[in-house]
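Exercise: predict the structure of this protein bound to norvaline.
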Amino acid sequence: MVKHILAIDDVEEDFHKILKWAIEFKRLWKEGDEVAMNFFPLDSLAVGSIYEKPSTRTRVSFEVGINRLGGYPLTLLKNDIQLGKSETVGDTSQVLSRFLGAMTYRCYAHADVEELAKHATVPVINALSDKHHPCQSAADLMTVLEHFSELDDLKIAWVGDGNNVLHDLALACAILGIDIHYAIPKGYEPDKDVMDRVQSLAEKNGSSVVQTNDPVEAVKDAHVVYTDVFISMGEEHLKDKIASFDGFQVNEKLVDNMDENWKFMHCLPAHRGDEVTDWVMDHEHSIVFDQAENRMWAQMSLLAYLVSEGAWDAMYEFMGLE
Ligand code: CP
Ligand code: NVA
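Solution:
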């Protein structure tokens, strides 16, 4: 059966291994290791990426990463293809499956990426929908693993909107057994079904999930604070929403409540002066550009895992990972 990644818990069983693979592959590649640099599991396969919304990180990291794995990236902007105008998502999926080795899709409604996957005969990766952003959470947890060797007592705090990025961050933390505390203004809580999945993963893996309306409570002694824009793509008409986020800015005063070795994370793009100040963004404890870079390494691991599991396994073994 074809595997898809529509939310990060779709790879729950191998998530930690996928991240370890990405970290070690990145290290070897940067050292110029011959085996890593000549690892081409996509072997001339074309990977098509459909975008309904703008993107910098996702688009560039997929294009460069696919090339580095020996594949051929095809970026398909919605205005340039028939999708949504004269062709359904299902028909588009069946046509593209005849040409491509895998597809990625950035869409508004999560139901559309589910529909694409339903009709696809090749793997589909969600490149952000209104509900999930699994590639982001893979890069995020990869970055956390690079910065913290001990996960047991780690506390990650989220301050902001209960959105797509929080959903997959919380799922990813719960899969790895990391505590997550999230502060959300009333009325902007995350999706109940997703948080039920988070809760059951956290119970299984021995971590806690705590919701509050108080940012100070969420970040108290936390090792990481994560935020995102208050108004996501597709919500531009909800300008009034921003007033509800008064007091939810990550700034010097808020991070003063955290562990002294605090780190700041953001999926980017950041709206400096809204959800985060320049002081925090540009602080030496900010790891936002590590996250951005890790989009590529994490997605390379996910793609190789999905499209060529045998080659991904062989590389895992070559790298001597447990
Ligand atoms: N974080 C993220 O997905 O960035 P882009 O919108 O630039 O792809
Ligand atoms: N929550 C944001 C994330 C952007 C990467 C959005 O959906 O627009």
